[in-house]
Amino acid sequence: MRFLLREAKKVDGLFLFWPGGPTPICVVANPAAAKAVLADHRRYPKGDDYRDKFGAVFGDGLVTSNGPAHARARRVLGRYFTRAALEAKEAAIAAAFDATAAEIFADVGSSYVDVDVQEFFHLATLRAFCAAMLSEDIYAWRLPGMDAPGAVARHVAREVSFGSNVVGEHMLYNIPMSPLLPRVRRLARSAATVRREVFAPLLARRRAAVAAGTAPDDCLTALVVASDADDGGAGGGDAAVMDQLVTLIGAGHDTSAYFCCYASLSLARCQRDARAESHHWFWGTPRTHRNSRSAVKSNSYPAVSRDRSV
Ligand code: HEM
Q1: Please, what's the b/e burial string for 121-160 (b: 16 or more CB within 10 A of its CB; e: otherwise)?
Q2: Is residue 279 assigned to a domain?
Protein backbone atom coordinates (compact mmCIF):
# COMPACT_ATOMS: atom_id res chain seq x y z
CA MET A 1 0.00 0.00 0.00
CA ARG A 2 2.85 2.36 0.91
CA PHE A 3 4.42 1.66 -2.48
CA LEU A 4 1.15 2.48 -4.29
CA LEU A 5 0.66 5.73 -2.36
CA ARG A 6 4.27 6.81 -3.03
CA GLU A 7 4.07 6.07 -6.76
CA ALA A 8 0.65 7.77 -7.04
CA LYS A 9 2.20 11.07 -5.94
CA LYS A 10 4.87 10.96 -8.64
CA VAL A 11 4.69 12.80 -11.99
CA ASP A 12 1.21 12.36 -13.50
CA GLY A 13 -0.27 9.71 -11.18
CA LEU A 14 -0.16 6.99 -13.85
CA PHE A 15 2.04 3.94 -13.38
CA LEU A 16 2.25 0.19 -13.94
CA PHE A 17 2.20 -2.25 -11.06
CA TRP A 18 3.02 -5.99 -11.20
CA PRO A 19 1.13 -7.61 -8.32
CA GLY A 20 2.05 -11.10 -9.55
CA GLY A 21 1.95 -12.94 -12.85
CA PRO A 22 2.88 -11.63 -16.29
CA THR A 23 0.17 -8.95 -16.66
CA PRO A 24 0.67 -5.55 -15.03
CA ILE A 25 -2.10 -3.38 -13.60
CA CYS A 26 -2.20 0.23 -14.80
CA VAL A 27 -2.87 2.40 -11.75
CA VAL A 28 -4.74 5.63 -12.53
CA ALA A 29 -4.32 8.05 -9.62
CA ASN A 30 -4.88 11.19 -11.59
CA PRO A 31 -8.37 12.71 -11.13
CA ALA A 32 -8.85 13.82 -14.75
CA ALA A 33 -7.68 10.50 -16.18
CA ALA A 34 -9.74 8.54 -13.61
CA LYS A 35 -12.84 10.51 -14.59
CA ALA A 36 -12.26 9.76 -18.27
CA VAL A 37 -11.76 6.03 -17.60
CA LEU A 38 -14.86 5.77 -15.40
CA ALA A 39 -17.15 7.89 -17.58
CA ASP A 40 -16.29 6.79 -21.12
CA HIS A 41 -17.65 3.25 -21.22
CA ARG A 42 -17.14 2.87 -24.97
CA ARG A 43 -13.44 3.69 -24.96
CA TYR A 44 -12.76 1.94 -21.64
CA PRO A 45 -15.03 -1.12 -21.39
CA LYS A 46 -14.72 -3.15 -18.19
CA GLY A 47 -11.98 -5.78 -18.47
CA ASP A 48 -12.58 -9.53 -18.31
CA ASP A 49 -10.63 -9.96 -15.07
CA TYR A 50 -12.76 -7.26 -13.38
CA ARG A 51 -15.98 -8.79 -14.74
CA ASP A 52 -14.96 -12.34 -13.78
CA LYS A 53 -13.96 -11.47 -10.22
CA PHE A 54 -16.87 -9.17 -9.36
CA GLY A 55 -19.18 -11.29 -11.51
CA ALA A 56 -18.71 -14.26 -9.15
CA VAL A 57 -20.95 -12.31 -6.74
CA PHE A 58 -22.65 -9.60 -8.80
CA GLY A 59 -23.55 -11.75 -11.82
CA ASP A 60 -24.39 -9.42 -14.71
CA GLY A 61 -25.46 -6.42 -12.59
CA LEU A 62 -24.67 -2.79 -13.33
CA VAL A 63 -21.11 -2.91 -11.98
CA THR A 64 -20.08 -5.87 -14.14
CA SER A 65 -22.17 -5.51 -17.32
CA ASN A 66 -20.89 -3.93 -20.54
CA GLY A 67 -22.51 -2.76 -23.79
CA PRO A 68 -26.32 -2.97 -24.30
CA ALA A 69 -27.03 -4.76 -20.99
CA HIS A 70 -25.22 -1.99 -19.11
CA ALA A 71 -26.97 0.78 -21.11
CA ARG A 72 -30.38 -0.82 -20.46
CA ALA A 73 -29.76 -1.11 -16.70
CA ARG A 74 -28.57 2.53 -16.55
CA ARG A 75 -31.77 3.62 -18.31
CA VAL A 76 -33.90 1.72 -15.77
CA LEU A 77 -32.01 2.74 -12.60
CA GLY A 78 -30.44 6.10 -13.48
CA ARG A 79 -33.47 8.23 -12.63
CA TYR A 80 -33.41 7.04 -8.99
CA PHE A 81 -29.89 8.37 -8.46
CA THR A 82 -30.41 11.98 -9.58
CA ARG A 83 -30.03 14.73 -7.01
CA ALA A 84 -33.77 15.48 -7.01
CA ALA A 85 -34.72 11.81 -6.58
CA LEU A 86 -32.28 11.41 -3.69
CA GLU A 87 -33.49 14.62 -2.03
CA ALA A 88 -37.03 13.22 -2.15
CA LYS A 89 -35.74 10.26 -0.10
CA GLU A 90 -34.00 12.43 2.47
CA ALA A 91 -36.57 11.77 5.23
CA ALA A 92 -36.39 7.98 4.76
CA ILE A 93 -32.58 8.06 4.82
CA ALA A 94 -32.47 10.29 7.94
CA ALA A 95 -35.02 8.03 9.69
CA ALA A 96 -32.86 4.96 8.96
CA PHE A 97 -29.78 6.71 10.43
CA ASP A 98 -31.73 7.93 13.48
CA ALA A 99 -33.20 4.50 14.21
CA THR A 100 -29.76 2.87 13.91
CA ALA A 101 -28.15 5.56 16.09
CA ALA A 102 -30.84 5.02 18.75
CA GLU A 103 -30.01 1.31 18.74
CA ILE A 104 -26.19 1.43 18.60
CA PHE A 105 -25.59 4.52 20.73
CA ALA A 106 -28.23 3.66 23.33
CA ASP A 107 -25.55 3.32 26.04
CA VAL A 108 -23.69 6.52 25.20
CA GLY A 109 -24.26 8.99 28.01
CA SER A 110 -22.04 11.71 29.34
CA SER A 111 -19.15 9.31 29.99
CA TYR A 112 -16.85 7.64 27.46
CA VAL A 113 -18.18 4.39 25.98
CA ASP A 114 -16.35 2.28 23.43
CA VAL A 115 -18.57 2.22 20.32
CA ASP A 116 -17.73 0.72 16.95
CA VAL A 117 -18.67 3.52 14.54
CA GLN A 118 -18.01 1.19 11.63
CA GLU A 119 -20.81 -1.10 12.80
CA PHE A 120 -23.13 1.89 13.06
CA PHE A 121 -22.40 3.13 9.54
CA HIS A 122 -22.59 -0.34 8.00
CA LEU A 123 -26.03 -0.94 9.48
CA ALA A 124 -27.27 2.61 8.84
CA THR A 125 -26.25 2.71 5.17
CA LEU A 126 -27.72 -0.73 4.54
CA ARG A 127 -30.96 0.22 6.23
CA ALA A 128 -31.10 3.56 4.40
CA PHE A 129 -30.52 1.95 1.01
CA CYS A 130 -33.23 -0.68 1.54
CA ALA A 131 -35.71 1.93 2.81
CA ALA A 132 -35.05 4.57 0.16
CA MET A 133 -34.43 2.44 -2.93
CA LEU A 134 -36.41 -0.77 -2.26
CA SER A 135 -39.09 0.57 0.14
CA GLU A 136 -38.10 -2.34 2.41
CA ASP A 137 -37.28 -2.57 6.12
CA ILE A 138 -34.21 -4.80 6.22
CA TYR A 139 -34.77 -5.28 9.96
CA ALA A 140 -37.89 -7.26 9.05
CA TRP A 141 -36.00 -9.67 6.74
CA ARG A 142 -35.51 -13.22 8.01
CA LEU A 143 -33.10 -16.05 7.19
CA PRO A 144 -33.11 -19.56 8.65
CA GLY A 145 -31.72 -19.30 12.18
CA MET A 146 -31.80 -15.48 12.12
CA ASP A 147 -35.11 -14.44 13.60
CA ALA A 148 -34.12 -11.48 15.76
CA PRO A 149 -34.90 -8.06 14.25
CA GLY A 150 -31.73 -6.76 12.57
CA ALA A 151 -29.98 -10.15 12.55
CA VAL A 152 -30.17 -10.37 8.75
CA ALA A 153 -28.91 -6.78 8.39
CA ARG A 154 -25.87 -7.65 10.54
CA HIS A 155 -25.28 -10.83 8.54
CA VAL A 156 -25.51 -8.98 5.19
CA ALA A 157 -23.23 -6.19 6.46
CA ARG A 158 -20.64 -8.75 7.58
CA GLU A 159 -20.77 -10.77 4.36
CA VAL A 160 -20.59 -7.67 2.12
CA SER A 161 -17.47 -6.48 3.96
CA PHE A 162 -15.98 -9.96 3.75
CA GLY A 163 -16.84 -10.10 0.02
CA SER A 164 -15.29 -6.66 -0.63
CA ASN A 165 -12.02 -7.81 0.93
CA VAL A 166 -12.01 -11.12 -0.93
CA VAL A 167 -12.77 -9.60 -4.35
CA GLY A 168 -10.32 -6.73 -3.71
CA GLU A 169 -7.48 -9.14 -2.86
CA HIS A 170 -8.28 -11.42 -5.79
CA MET A 171 -8.27 -8.39 -8.14
CA LEU A 172 -5.02 -7.00 -6.75
CA TYR A 173 -3.10 -10.29 -6.79
CA ASN A 174 -4.87 -11.75 -9.81
CA ILE A 175 -6.11 -14.85 -7.96
CA PRO A 176 -8.95 -16.69 -9.75
CA MET A 177 -12.32 -16.81 -7.96
CA SER A 178 -12.09 -20.59 -7.86
CA PRO A 179 -14.74 -22.58 -5.92
CA LEU A 180 -11.82 -24.67 -4.65
CA LEU A 181 -11.04 -21.80 -2.26
CA PRO A 182 -13.10 -21.89 0.98
CA ARG A 183 -13.52 -18.08 1.05
CA VAL A 184 -15.01 -18.11 -2.48
CA ARG A 185 -17.34 -20.96 -1.51
CA ARG A 186 -18.47 -19.01 1.59
CA LEU A 187 -19.23 -15.97 -0.56
CA ALA A 188 -21.18 -17.98 -3.13
CA ARG A 189 -23.13 -19.74 -0.35
CA SER A 190 -24.06 -16.46 1.35
CA ALA A 191 -25.21 -14.84 -1.90
CA ALA A 192 -27.22 -17.93 -2.90
CA THR A 193 -28.97 -18.08 0.51
CA VAL A 194 -29.99 -14.43 0.42
CA ARG A 195 -31.19 -14.78 -3.18
CA ARG A 196 -33.29 -17.87 -2.36
CA GLU A 197 -34.60 -16.97 1.10
CA VAL A 198 -34.98 -13.18 0.89
CA PHE A 199 -34.98 -11.97 -2.70
CA ALA A 200 -37.23 -14.67 -4.23
CA PRO A 201 -40.16 -13.98 -1.84
CA LEU A 202 -39.47 -10.23 -2.08
CA LEU A 203 -39.80 -10.35 -5.88
CA ALA A 204 -43.01 -12.39 -5.63
CA ARG A 205 -44.48 -9.77 -3.24
CA ARG A 206 -43.43 -6.94 -5.51
CA ARG A 207 -44.85 -8.58 -8.64
CA ALA A 208 -48.16 -8.99 -6.80
CA ALA A 209 -48.08 -5.30 -5.79
CA VAL A 210 -47.31 -4.28 -9.39
CA ALA A 211 -50.27 -6.39 -10.61
CA ALA A 212 -52.52 -4.80 -7.95
CA GLY A 213 -51.32 -1.29 -8.85
CA THR A 214 -50.01 -0.65 -5.31
CA ALA A 215 -46.24 -0.93 -5.94
CA PRO A 216 -44.11 2.04 -4.78
CA ASP A 217 -42.08 3.97 -7.35
CA ASP A 218 -38.57 2.72 -6.53
CA CYS A 219 -35.58 0.81 -7.96
CA LEU A 220 -37.11 -2.59 -7.21
CA THR A 221 -40.41 -1.88 -8.96
CA ALA A 222 -38.54 -0.42 -11.95
CA LEU A 223 -36.36 -3.56 -12.19
CA VAL A 224 -39.33 -5.94 -11.91
CA VAL A 225 -41.38 -4.02 -14.52
CA ALA A 226 -38.41 -3.80 -16.92
CA SER A 227 -37.57 -7.50 -16.60
CA ASP A 228 -41.20 -8.45 -17.28
CA ALA A 229 -41.25 -6.17 -20.33
CA ASP A 230 -38.01 -7.82 -21.56
CA ASP A 231 -39.40 -11.35 -21.38
CA GLY A 232 -42.85 -10.51 -22.75
CA GLY A 233 -44.59 -10.50 -19.35
CA ALA A 234 -43.58 -14.07 -18.48
CA GLY A 235 -42.05 -12.85 -15.22
CA GLY A 236 -39.09 -15.23 -15.53
CA GLY A 237 -36.32 -12.66 -15.33
CA ASP A 238 -35.84 -13.01 -11.58
CA ALA A 239 -32.16 -13.99 -11.85
CA ALA A 240 -31.36 -10.73 -13.68
CA VAL A 241 -33.27 -8.64 -11.12
CA MET A 242 -31.45 -10.43 -8.29
CA ASP A 243 -28.08 -9.69 -9.96
CA GLN A 244 -28.99 -5.98 -9.84
CA LEU A 245 -30.13 -6.22 -6.19
CA VAL A 246 -26.95 -7.97 -5.05
CA THR A 247 -24.94 -5.42 -7.05
CA LEU A 248 -26.68 -2.35 -5.63
CA ILE A 249 -26.53 -3.58 -2.03
CA GLY A 250 -22.92 -4.80 -2.41
CA ALA A 251 -21.59 -1.79 -4.34
CA GLY A 252 -23.51 0.85 -2.43
CA HIS A 253 -23.30 -0.17 1.17
CA ASP A 254 -19.65 -0.91 2.05
CA THR A 255 -18.37 2.09 0.07
CA SER A 256 -20.82 4.50 1.70
CA ALA A 257 -20.16 3.08 5.19
CA TYR A 258 -16.38 3.54 4.90
CA PHE A 259 -16.84 6.98 3.37
CA CYS A 260 -18.99 7.98 6.40
CA CYS A 261 -16.37 6.54 8.79
CA TYR A 262 -13.67 8.58 7.13
CA ALA A 263 -15.82 11.73 7.16
CA SER A 264 -16.44 11.24 10.92
CA LEU A 265 -12.75 10.73 11.60
CA SER A 266 -11.97 13.93 9.70
CA LEU A 267 -14.65 15.83 11.65
CA ALA A 268 -13.33 14.47 14.95
CA ARG A 269 -9.78 15.50 14.04
CA CYS A 270 -11.05 18.90 13.06
CA GLN A 271 -12.77 19.24 16.42
CA ARG A 272 -9.62 18.12 18.26
CA ASP A 273 -7.47 20.58 16.31
CA ALA A 274 -9.93 23.41 16.97
CA ARG A 275 -9.87 22.58 20.71
CA ALA A 276 -6.08 22.45 20.77
CA GLU A 277 -5.91 25.76 18.91
CA SER A 278 -8.36 27.53 21.20
CA HIS A 279 -6.55 26.15 24.27
CA HIS A 280 -3.31 27.55 22.93
CA TRP A 281 -4.98 30.88 22.11
CA PHE A 282 -6.52 31.27 25.59
CA TRP A 283 -3.73 29.86 27.77
CA GLY A 284 -0.72 30.34 25.56
CA THR A 285 0.37 26.71 26.06
CA PRO A 286 0.05 23.84 23.61
CA ARG A 287 -2.21 20.96 24.66
CA THR A 288 -0.31 17.88 25.73
CA HIS A 289 -0.45 14.79 23.57
CA ARG A 290 -2.40 13.05 26.35
CA ASN A 291 -5.00 15.80 26.52
CA SER A 292 -5.44 15.83 22.76
CA ARG A 293 -6.04 12.10 22.68
CA SER A 294 -8.61 12.28 25.44
CA ALA A 295 -10.35 15.11 23.58
CA VAL A 296 -10.82 12.80 20.61
CA LYS A 297 -12.00 9.94 22.81
CA SER A 298 -14.53 11.87 24.75
CA ASN A 299 -15.91 13.91 21.89
CA SER A 300 -15.73 12.09 18.60
CA TYR A 301 -18.30 9.35 19.20
CA PRO A 302 -21.05 11.54 20.67
CA ALA A 303 -20.39 14.00 17.80
CA VAL A 304 -21.11 11.23 15.34
CA SER A 305 -24.24 10.09 17.09
CA ARG A 306 -25.73 13.53 17.50
CA ASP A 307 -24.83 15.12 14.18
CA ARG A 308 -27.32 13.73 11.71
CA SER A 309 -25.76 15.58 8.79
CA VAL A 310 -22.75 13.23 9.01
C1 HEM B 1 -18.90 6.94 -1.08
C2 HEM B 1 -19.57 5.96 -1.63
C3 HEM B 1 -19.20 5.32 -2.95
C4 HEM B 1 -17.97 5.17 -3.54
C5 HEM B 1 -16.61 5.63 -3.03
C6 HEM B 1 -18.19 4.48 -4.79
C7 HEM B 1 -17.19 4.16 -5.71
C8 HEM B 1 -17.45 3.68 -6.97
C9 HEM B 1 -16.47 3.52 -8.02
C10 HEM B 1 -14.99 3.90 -7.91
C11 HEM B 1 -17.09 3.01 -9.09
C12 HEM B 1 -16.46 2.68 -10.44
C13 HEM B 1 -16.08 1.24 -10.40
C14 HEM B 1 -15.40 0.83 -11.66
O15 HEM B 1 -15.97 1.04 -12.75
O16 HEM B 1 -14.31 0.27 -11.56
C17 HEM B 1 -18.47 2.82 -8.74
C18 HEM B 1 -19.41 2.31 -9.59
C19 HEM B 1 -20.67 1.98 -9.19
N20 HEM B 1 -21.23 2.25 -7.98
FE21 HEM B 1 -20.40 3.25 -6.48
N22 HEM B 1 -19.52 4.21 -4.90
C23 HEM B 1 -20.17 4.69 -3.81
C24 HEM B 1 -21.51 4.61 -3.52
C25 HEM B 1 -22.41 3.91 -4.28
C26 HEM B 1 -23.82 3.74 -3.96
C27 HEM B 1 -24.52 4.35 -2.74
C28 HEM B 1 -24.36 2.93 -4.92
C29 HEM B 1 -25.74 2.40 -5.10
C30 HEM B 1 -26.59 2.24 -4.15
C31 HEM B 1 -23.28 2.61 -5.85
C32 HEM B 1 -23.43 1.81 -6.95
C33 HEM B 1 -22.51 1.75 -7.97
C34 HEM B 1 -22.80 1.12 -9.27
C35 HEM B 1 -24.11 0.46 -9.68
C36 HEM B 1 -21.63 1.28 -10.04
C37 HEM B 1 -21.43 0.84 -11.49
C38 HEM B 1 -21.87 2.00 -12.37
C39 HEM B 1 -21.78 1.70 -13.83
O40 HEM B 1 -20.98 0.86 -14.27
O41 HEM B 1 -22.51 2.33 -14.60
N42 HEM B 1 -22.14 3.22 -5.44
N43 HEM B 1 -18.66 3.23 -7.46
Answers
A1: bbbbbbbbbbbbbbbbebbebebeeeeeebebbbbbbebb
A2: no
CA 179, CA 198: separation in Å to the nearest integer?
23
Q: Is residue 232 predicted with pLDDT exceeding 70?
A: no
Torsion angle, CA of 270/273/278/283, rounded to 10 degrees? 170
270: CA distance to ligand 1 center in Å?
28
Instruction: Catalogue the long-range contacts made by 185-189 (C-beta closer than 8 Å, 24 or more residues apart).
Output: 186/162, 187/56, 187/57, 187/159, 187/162, 187/163, 188/56, 188/57
**Cα 253 to ligand 1 centroid, rounded to whole Å:** 10
CB 255 less than 6 A from any atom of ligand 1: yes
* 234 domain-assigned: yes
Distance (Å) from CA 252 to ligand 1 centroid:
6
**Residue that is last in its domain, among 258, 287, 305:** 258
How far apart, in Å, are the Cα atoms of 42 and each of 46, 71, 81, 265?
A: 9, 11, 22, 38
What is the 240 CA–ligand 1 centroid distance (Å)? 19
Q: Which among 63, 134, 136, 249 is the best mutation to test ligand 1's pocket, defined by most ligand atoms within 8 Å of the CB?
A: 63
Q: Is the pTM of this model over 0.70?
A: yes
In-domain check, residue 192: yes
Q: Which residue segment(s) compose the domain that 58 sits in?
A: 46-258
Report yes or no on 228 lying in a domain: yes
User: Using one digit for the tens of pLDDT, what is the confidence trace for 117-175?
Assistant: 899 999 999 999 999 999 999 999 999 999 999 999 999 999 999 999 999 899 888 88
